[in-house]
Amino acid sequence: MKHNYLDNIPLEEAKEKFFSLIKNNFKHSSEIIPTAEAAGRVITEAAYAQICSPHYNASAMDGIAVSAKDTYGASESTPTILSPDRYTVVDTGDSIPDDKDAVIMVEDISFEPEGRVKIISSVHPFQNVRQIGEDICMGDMIAPSFTVITPPLCGAMLAGGITKVPVIKRPSVAIIPTGDEIVPPTENPEKGQIIEFNSSIFSGMLKEWGAEPKIYPIIPDKKELLKEKIKDASEKHDAVLILAGSSAGRDDYTCEIIKELGSVCVHGIAIKPGKPAVLGKIGKAPVVGLPGYPVSAIVVMREIVKDMIVFLSQGKIKEEEKITALLGKRIVSSLKYREYVRVTVGKIGENYVAVPLPRGAGIVTSFTKADGIITVPQNCEGIEQGEDVEVTLISSHKDITSSIIVTGSHDPIIDEINDILKIKGYPYSVSSSHVGSMGALNAVKMKQAHLGGTHMLDTQTGEYNKSYIEKYLDSKDATLIKGIGRIQGLMVQKGNPKKIHTFNDIVGHRYANRQLGSGTRILFDYLLKKHCIDKADIDGYGNEEFTHTAVAAQIAGGNADCGLGIYSAAQMYGLDFIEITVEEYDFIVNNDFIGTPMYNAFTEIFRSDELKKRMKKMGGYCFE
Amino acid sequence: MKHNYLDNIPLEEAKEKFFSLIKNNFKHSSEIIPTAEAAGRVITEAAYAQICSPHYNASAMDGIAVSAKDTYGASESTPTILSPDRYTVVDTGDSIPDDKDAVIMVEDISFEPEGRVKIISSVHPFQNVRQIGEDICMGDMIAPSFTVITPPLCGAMLAGGITKVPVIKRPSVAIIPTGDEIVPPTENPEKGQIIEFNSSIFSGMLKEWGAEPKIYPIIPDKKELLKEKIKDASEKHDAVLILAGSSAGRDDYTCEIIKELGSVCVHGIAIKPGKPAVLGKIGKAPVVGLPGYPVSAIVVMREIVKDMIVFLSQGKIKEEEKITALLGKRIVSSLKYREYVRVTVGKIGENYVAVPLPRGAGIVTSFTKADGIITVPQNCEGIEQGEDVEVTLISSHKDITSSIIVTGSHDPIIDEINDILKIKGYPYSVSSSHVGSMGALNAVKMKQAHLGGTHMLDTQTGEYNKSYIEKYLDSKDATLIKGIGRIQGLMVQKGNPKKIHTFNDIVGHRYANRQLGSGTRILFDYLLKKHCIDKADIDGYGNEEFTHTAVAAQIAGGNADCGLGIYSAAQMYGLDFIEITVEEYDFIVNNDFIGTPMYNAFTEIFRSDELKKRMKKMGGYCFE
Question: Distance from the CA of B169 to the CA of which of A213, B79, B89, B111 falls in 20 to 30 A?
Answer without folding.
Answer: A213
